[in-house]
Amino acid sequence: MRILNILVAEDDDQNQAMMRLLLSRYGHKVKSAWNGMQAVDAVKSGTYDLVFMDLHMPEMDGLEAIRKIREWENNEKHTPIVILTGSNPTDISDEYKKAGADTFITKPFDVKRINLLVNIIADQSETQLEQESQLYSNNTLAGAHLLDVQSAMPRFNNDTTLYRENLKEFLLSLPIRVEKLESALGAQNWDELSLLAHNLKGVAANFGANQLSMLAFQLDEYSRRHQLKSATSTYHEIHQNIQIVLDMGKKIIEQKEIQNPAALGGN
After folding, report:
1. Is the bond preceding residue 154 a cis peptide, omega within 30 degrees?
2. How far apart are CA 4 and CA 143, in angstroms?
3. For 149-164, how does the pLDDT look when each residue is reduced to its tens digit (9 = 90+)?
4. Is the Cα torsion angle 192, 197, 202, 204 positive or negative in sign?
5. What is the pTM of this model?
6. Directed axis angle between helix 228-254 and helix 190-206, to 10°?
7. Inter-CA distances, 161 with 2, 103, 158, 187, 257, Å
8. Nearest residue to 96 (alpha-carbon basis) of 151, 133, 146, 59
9. Residue 202 phi/psi, 5° resolution?
10. Are β-strands 29-33 and 5-9 bridged in parallel, bridged antiparallel, or unpaired?
């Protein structure tokens, strides 16, 4: 399998770290872009075998960035582009195809599907990405655990030490995320609030904080509809949920070995 040059366009630090972890462990070279404009510039100035493109980013969203890239390529080349999204894929399927994306991956990240798509490119298979990607389902969040370590472990190669190290960074980021959510909500900056909630939704799910992820999903939806009362209520639920996740997460970090990850989840 050849080594690929891969661009990950994603504005959340921890989602970037997750993708880098998944891709670099097989030797692939990973570069980062933090918004759509950077992604377009990166593709124009470099040679990439594969691009992962988040849908919701500041300055320029993923679909617009894909359209810009396809316009620049002008049918003379075709860089495979995979959308990263926390949205329902049926809601964006027509949009991503019209924009020129090849397929999509839903958040939380499905390791098997990511590996499948990367291997298709690396092995230069003639099978289309869209067809092969359907081998794996795109289920949304199943269950609503506070912190379901067992469901998160495959994303960290079943390495409990690696999970704890990344979990520590996630926990440190939560108070900052809460402050930003509160500020955006207070200013009724709906676009900013939606983006912050969207990012929290994906990152929380990666660590098995499924209940927090679902609440963030609700906040994202209320933000898009400018529903202040519902958004405020959901923000307070998120704030309370985060306090519980922080307590549970700290206990996990302090453990020398996670004997039974499933026991650490809970409704």
Report:
1. no
2. 35
3. 888 888 888 888 888 8
4. positive
5. 0.61
6. 30
7. 29, 32, 9, 40, 8
8. 133
9. -70, -45
10. parallel
Domains of the chain: 5-133 (3.40.50.2300), 149-264 (1.20.120.160)
Tell how strand 50-54 and strand 81-85 pair up: parallel
**In the chain, where does DSSP find H-type helix?**
13-24, 36-45, 62-73, 89-99, 111-122, 129-133, 149-152, 160-186, 190-206, 210-224, 228-254
Supply angle C-alpha 202, 173, 216, rounded to 5: 35
Range of lowest pLDDT (104-118, 154-168, 243-257): 104-118
Dist CA 68 CA 70 (whole Å) = 6
* Contact by Cβ (8 Å): 99, 70: yes
Please report how many Cα atoms fall inside a 13 Å half-sphere around the Cα of residue 201, on the Cβ side. Answer: 26
Tokens standing for 29? Answer: 């070279």
